[in-house]
Write a structure and sequence with these properties.
- The protein is extended, with a radius of gyration of 17 Å.
- Helix content is about 0%, strand content about 30%.
- With about 100 residues, the protein is an all-beta fold.
- The strands form 2 sheets. The chain has a two-stranded antiparallel sheet with strand order 1-2. Strands 3-4 form a two-stranded antiparallel ribbon.
- The protein is built from no helices and 4 strands.
- The two termini are about 30 Å apart.
Length: about 100
């Protein structure tokens, strides 16, 4: 399901909403392209320390049409698994407590 956040169905599952994938051609490497996808786009850095997470039950996909016929020629699929690890001595509701190392 992909839509803008005000659409009735995606408003029930905001972590599954994907807003406008972009492709960026590399001028110095014309045989390469960068794909950018934006999920939960209205989050701001100052809105932390807790942000929405990717949905553990969502299959995220980016479909690429290479020949302009409106059908996907390549599909990239992503699944995420949230793991809460408290690197400090205190139990906390924060999931954002330590350095990201991988």
């Amino acid at each position: 399901m992909s839509s803008h956040s005000e659409a009735p169905e995606i408003s029930k599952d905001p972590v599954a909403g994907q807003h406008g994938p972009l492709r960026v051609h590399q001028p110095r490497q014309p045989n390469k392209v960068t794909l950018i996808a934006n999920y939960i786009p209205r989050q701001q850095p100052a809105g932390g320390p807790n942000f929405f997470e990717f949905g553990d039950d969502v299959l995220y996909e980016i479909h690429v049409d290479n020949n302009g016929d409106g059908n996907a020629d390549v599909t990239f699929q992503f699944r995420f698994e949230t793991k809460l690890t408290d690197t400090g001595a205190n139990d906390t509701f924060l999931y954002n407590t330590g350095q990201i190392t991988s």
